[in-house]
Amino acid sequence: MPEYKVKFEVFEGPLDLLLYLIKKEEVDIYEVNLTRLATQFIEYIETMRLMDLEVAGEFLVMAATLMYIKSRELLPVDQQVQVEGEEDGDDPRWELIRQLVEYKKFKDAAAQLGVLEARQEDVFPRVPVKLEFEAEAPKRNEASIFDLLNAVSTVLQRFNRPSDQRDIFEDKWSVSEKIDHLMRAISEQSRLKFSDLFAGVTSRSEVVVTFLALLELIRLKQLVAVQGEAFGEIEICRPPPISKAPDILAGAPVAEPPQPFQGAE
Amino acid sequence: MDLKFILEAILFSAQKPLSLKELRDVFSSAVEHAEGNETVRGLKKVKEEQLTAALEALAKDHDAANRSYRLVCVAGSWQFVTQPDYAPWLKALVGHKARPPRLSQPGLETLAIIAYRQPLTRAEIEQVRGVAVDGVMQTLVERGLVEQLGRAEVIGRPMTYGTTAVFLEYFGLRSLDDLPAADELRRIPIQKPESLATVDPGLATAPPEQLIQPTDAPPAKAETPAQASPSDSASTTEPGSSS
Amino acid sequence: MDLKFILEAILFSAQKPLSLKELRDVFSSAVEHAEGNETVRGLKKVKEEQLTAALEALAKDHDAANRSYRLVCVAGSWQFVTQPDYAPWLKALVGHKARPPRLSQPGLETLAIIAYRQPLTRAEIEQVRGVAVDGVMQTLVERGLVEQLGRAEVIGRPMTYGTTAVFLEYFGLRSLDDLPAADELRRIPIQKPESLATVDPGLATAPPEQLIQPTDAPPAKAETPAQASPSDSASTTEPGSSS
User: Fold this and answer.
1) Cα torsion for C153, C158, C159, C160, to the nearest 10°?
2) Using the beta-carbon criterion (under 8 Å), do C178 and A145 form an inter-chain contact?
3) Of A62, B107, C136, C172, which has the most beta carbons under 10 Å away?
4) Interface membership of C97 toward B (CB under 8 Å)
5) Does B179 fall in a domain?
6) Which pLDDT band holds residue A24 (cuts at 50, 70, 90)?
7) For residue C174, is it within any domain?
């Protein structure tokens, strides 16, 4: 029976072997002839022994169970020994069948997991190019701090009269108020001339506060100062939504190939 | 801008699968990068339910588009993956990556039992499989597919085991509910069929009353009270007991 | 299987843009991974013209689909890229270094005073701002924007403060000379108002006209100590009120 040897080695245990035997009989587990199954099982064990193969303990335990079942079958019901502690319902046959059915279900589930396992080997996750955002350097067309400096300096000229120095100012502007003010103005007009920012300004301190507010907003990238040409009028507007070259704003439009947010090679 | 597309762009650019929590973090910290952007601000505190709904809709979109990739949720995290059909070229693309060897048959069986019945003890696993599982369990734990969960409140307080997130990833499952036939297998109610009681051609005698599980019968084995109970109660309805 | 979709799957999974040559290499080495696959064998020696045509068709598909990403060819290499609209979230995704929280208004104003008038003592700052600056100064020092410079040669030899290199970086200045209108602003005459009681309610900081030009007017400490104190305590209750 060389076939047994080969088969035996792949059986995961006595339940596996029993399932194999049942399958060979082509019967439903529930309808299996346990007596015949017991005989076949024990034959296998014997064959293994004859071939000097090591028989695992679990197989021997199962063989004993099957022998017991078989022996019970040979007796009429009323003569069957009632084992102490064994209740009426503890039918070893039923217990074995229950175990076989359960094991069979898990064996099937394992097969399905095996299919999933194999399938996953062919599934590849998207691992995209690492995104890298360019350091947000000042854009070519944005006004430099020098331009702002010159501009504010010009505005300050208006207040550069000695008499101002003793004035007590009525207005009480804070930087936060001016920030609100600027943001409101820009949302209404979307583009403001730098000089317009100071149009209604009445004191040097208000110029300073307005200017501080503007600087902060620029730093926070809420606003950009744009100078179309050297020494031209600076304009204030909202930054473009993305860090692309603000070609709509001023200067030569940059015709770059579309390559947003791809990483470096 | 549609939440769905924003999620798409994020997942499309992510280096790893993202959980709902991670996605929410992206939405909340995006505000730092676009303070004035209405959409960004509006989504700052996007709810998990909104995200889930949008993600499901997005996954559906992609399924319907029937392209070479799809959006999946594995172990609670979302990612784009390619369809298995394209594996030959993708294997060529990524080079021969040494994948862990496939699980052995005992490994798969043991894993299946743990997956459906967790938490459970080693003795309970062995009872289902009918063989010792020491070596197999060690492999499963080493591969991170299975972990100790705690201790069972029975004599000896043995360790209980369950599956991990790695398990879900390994099989591409969204959650344990995704396990094939999960409902059926979690608690198999094995009904004793009438045929067993009345027709058993191979038996010299057919003592049907012995096949009946008494209602008050203690579980067949101490380790499997949960499994035994359903079949117990099922069998009480059987008519054969009066014969 | 359509060449277009295979290309899609490859580019979808590629960690870098791929040139036609690289794509052809993928097709030729895919045969190692699926010897028996007809499609794989058939595409082993796919021509560059075929690839280009398929890639262009694919790019067109994706443009038409109008999703959050598209296929582009940059410098001869093909890759999927996200649309620029989603930048805020993608920046958040890659964890662009979160900017330190923006300076509060008191912080900003204190910093401005220090920047234009350095070196100066804390008392001088407080005198200019009209409120105590302990908390604000601590924040500025912690953030490295301000540092101790030395000691003033006056009674008690108080510490003097000035701005740091970090300050210059923070505001994108090359040097202190780059400070807007440095000369002008250093000489701004600022009078202390008669009454601090008129300070706008709800503002953490006193209005800037309280700024006193020390050169023009001697430190006004002695003038209105009683008035300064209440405003101190009022303003300290809302230290970081800018939101």
Assistant:
1) -50
2) yes
3) C136
4) no
5) yes
6) confident
7) yes
Domain annotation covers residue C220? no
Please tell me if residue B9 touches chain C, with a CB cutoff of 8 Å: yes
Contact C6 B86 (CB under 8 A): yes
pLDDT mean over B198-209 = 40
For chain A, the average pLDDT equals 70
Q: Which of C79, C94, C109 sits opposite A131 (nearest CB)?
A: C94
Structural domain for C112, as ranges: 105-187
At B173-199, the pLDDT tens digits run 999 988 887 666 766 545 554 444 333
Question: Nearest CB to A205: which of C72, C184, C209?
Answer: C209
Residue that wins the pLDDT comparison between B125 and A3 = B125
Residue B199: inside a domain, yes or no?
no
Q: How far apart are CA B123 and CA B161, in angstroms?
A: 11
> What is residue A224's three-state secondary structure?
strand
pLDDT in tens, C29-68: 888 887 788 888 888 888 999 999 999 999 999 999 889 9
- Domains contained in chain C, number: 2
Which residues in chain B touch residue A113, judged by CB atoms under 8 angstroms apart?
A: 103, 108, 111-112, 115, 171, 180
Query: How many angstroms away from the CA of C215 is the closest CA of chain A?
Result: 12
